[in-house]
Inverse folding.
């Protein structure tokens, strides 16, 4: 049974989903990292590809940009297609001096200015956190492979362009590693559906030291390290 945004049957989607933001990145993952891959849905240019990764069935599907877009796809995947785990593989801007461009961040939690943290329980700001087993799997894999990853909170913003730059130093003082636009939405969807989620992010630019942005091509290709950490989290 198709949903308004995913045009395939429940069995066409694997229980484990890799979710980049960019549809082109999703296609690249499908064609370079998956075996026996097939296109199972292609609605509004957001394709879903299902195959196997190291023998494990997985689907890769983009989320688009921002909490609202991701929340549509994640909710339908969890509630209608029996998905158990989603791992976001994306980019973020660095906030902490401890991280540099091209570093990998595993987002243990997500602060946010989005209403997704408050809308379901009036008067309460929900704690939006990664699933422990996925977080553990990602960190254990990275350490076993001697990969450097940073583990901590990120900030999910509803605004890419904002004049409110004054909040960045405060977030930095609280140990926030980076800023992006989807992780809090994913963690909220997982919570609502009693499912699991994690975000693994590559730092593409740095708000504090002004390190240069990655190019569009680099953003597409320079995610292999984060991808392998994400796969380990999904399988762990």
């Amino acid at each position: 049974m198709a949903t308004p945004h995913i045009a395939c049957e429940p069995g066409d989607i694997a229980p484990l989903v890799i979710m980049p933001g960019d549809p082109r990145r999703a296609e690249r993952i499908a064609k370079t990292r998956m075996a026996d891959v097939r296109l199972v849905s292609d609605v509004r240019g957001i394709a879903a590809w299902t195959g196997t990764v190291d023998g494990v069935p997985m689907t890769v599907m983009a989320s688009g940009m921002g909490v609202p877009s991701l929340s549509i796809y994640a909710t339908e995947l969890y509630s209608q297609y029996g998905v158990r785990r989603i791992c976001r593989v994306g980019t973020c801007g660095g906030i902490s001096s401890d991280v540099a461009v091209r570093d990998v961040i595993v987002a243990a939690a997500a602060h946010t200015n989005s209403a997704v943290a408050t809308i379901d329980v009036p008067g309460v700001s929900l704690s939006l956190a990664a699933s422990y087993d996925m977080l553990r799997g990602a960190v254990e894999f990275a350490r076993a492979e001697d990969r450097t990853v940073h583990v901590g909170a990120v900030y999910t913003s509803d605004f890419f362009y904002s004049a409110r730059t004054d909040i960045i130093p405060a977030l930095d003082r609280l140990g926030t590693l980076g800023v992006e636009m989807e992780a809090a939405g994913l963690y909220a969807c997982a919570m609502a559906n009693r499912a699991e989620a994690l975000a693994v992010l590559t730092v593409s630019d740095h708000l504090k030291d002004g390190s240069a942005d990655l190019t569009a091509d680099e953003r597409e290709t320079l995610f292999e390290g984060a991808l392998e950490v994400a796969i380990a989290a999904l399988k762990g």
